[in-house]
Design brief:
single chain, mainly alpha, Serine Threonine Protein Phosphatase 5, Tetratricopeptide repeat, 11 helices, 77% helix
Length: 192
Amino acid sequence: MIRAPLAALTAVLLTTTGCAPRPQQDTQVKADLKKLDNEQSPDKLLARGRMFASMGDLTRAEQYMASALERGGDPKTVLPLLLRVCVEARRYRAAIDYAEDELKKHPQDARLRFLVASLYVAIDEPKLARQHIETVLAAQPGDAEAHYVLAVLLRDQNDLVGADHHFREYLRLDPHGSHADEARGSLLKSVP
């Protein structure tokens, strides 16, 4: 009930004291707000993030790239750059957080899940790494690299039988792969 007279009184005070926005000022304020909004567009934020990354300021690069993502930037474009910046800065937990947020929206993204597993390996969280790798293998049983990573995790946890199985699967899928020698050397029984 008091609000209506208070609003009218405020309008009168603003008008008589010269504080009320004039149409010209109102137009300028709207133009300034539009310009500011354009400066905060995902593309501009991403461009600034790239610039800071190229200068070696990884913290600021991460901030701008994360803002670009929050303001609606395309995750397929922004997220890989953001994760690269985090990894270069050795901010593995931050990278995991960004990636896991995206995995909540796209749980079937095996490449991103494999990256998250690798990040968990980097921070010495083998149980979480294993969960993610097993999820990748459930969706893509023919992924040789995932078999290799799981074999190494199992070997490091003294599950030699499980490791042997995944080393063999890696060798079956990619017999001349970059990890073939290590895989052969880690088998319980050597194969020709």
